[in-house]
Design brief:
Length: about 110
């Protein structure tokens, strides 16, 4: 099992999770983070650190967000690792309350 970043992260990109990852499994895109399933060691440390509750165990990803499991795998193959905490995106607080943001995901 691995952990999966889901929709709540889009346009927020808090990186508290990155700071606690012992294996540098996070990858960074323009407005979203993903977890590389080949690097994740299922330690669970990132889950409580996410202020927008965007990270789930693969087996616990809500049914309407199941596509994020494949998306994390796909994007982790091309996005670069992020290994240090950075500031969240400028309007992260606003975006953290908005649902259905998949169309806003930036891949490059």
């Amino acid at each position: 099992m691995t952990y999966v970043v889901t929709e709540s992260c889009i346009n927020c990109k808090h990186t508290d999770c990155v700071d606690v990852c012992p294996v540098d499994a996070f990858r960074e895109g323009p407005n979203f983070l993903v977890i590389d399933p080949d690097e994740c060691i299922d330690c669970t440390l990132c889950v409580p650190e996410c202020p927008v509750d965007a990270i789930y165990a693969e087996s616990d990803v809500p049914s309407d967000m199941q596509h994020y499991t494949a998306l994390n795998h796909e994007l982790a193959a091309t996005w670069k690792p992020i290994v240090e905490k950075k500031a969240a995106l400028p309007e992260a607080d606003k975006w953290s309350r908005i649902k259905e943001k998949f169309a806003l995901l930036q891949r490059d």
